[in-house]
Amino acid sequence: MTKTVEFYFDLGSPTTYLAHTQLAKICADTQSELIYIPMLLGGVFKATGNASPAVIPAKGRYMFQDLDRFAKRYGVQLRFNPHFPINTLILMRAATGIQLHQPQRFAEFVDCLFRALWVEGRNLNDPQTIAAVLTENGFDPEEVLALSNDESVKAKLKENTEAAIKRGVFGAPSMFIGDQLFFGQDRLDFVEEALRQD
């Protein structure tokens, strides 16, 4: 039976971006299925009493140095976004809408937004910048905005977030293999190990 990785993600997390750059290859190498599940990290933080490490200055400084180390190890670009923190409500609704209504373009959609945030350092708090990024990547901003305002899409993102909290998620990235939770992009070796076990 094919193993699956359920990847609970929010675009506004740099650690989630790093996990995103690696998980497809890990799943391909282990003949596993990768399932992206959009959630709202702000909702998870509120429900669990957690917060971004960046709100603690010493921890934030360390985290950004550590992320840079991992980016070099993975051979990927990472630039800390000068507009952080990003309010991802519209972005995550949009990702949920694309996943539901244009699944064939979902990977491309998530890629372009992760790249805009964590490679190009674009200000995705700004609706005009979001529209520009979408246009540059072949998406219709008005169509994407309509999806993000769709009541069924809003409900699905809320449902995903509530399900994540019920499963014990307290931050992003969070990955499940069966009932096992793996938190953080620095736990990908354990994810790969679990996928290789019989």
UniProtKB/TrEMBL annotation:
Q: Which Pfam families match?
A: DSBA
| InterPro entries found in the cross-reference section | DSBA-like_thioredoxin_dom, GST_Kappa/NadH, HCCAis_GSTk, NahD-like, Thioredoxin-like_sf
| Catalytic activity, EC | 5.99.1.4
Keyword terms of this UniProt record: Isomerase
Q: State the top-level EC class.
A: isomerase
* All copies of domain DSBA-like thioredoxin, residue ranges: 4-195
Instruction: Report the sequence similarity comment from the record.
Output: Belongs to the GST superfamily. NadH family.
Recorded protein name is: 2-hydroxychromene-2-carboxylate isomerase
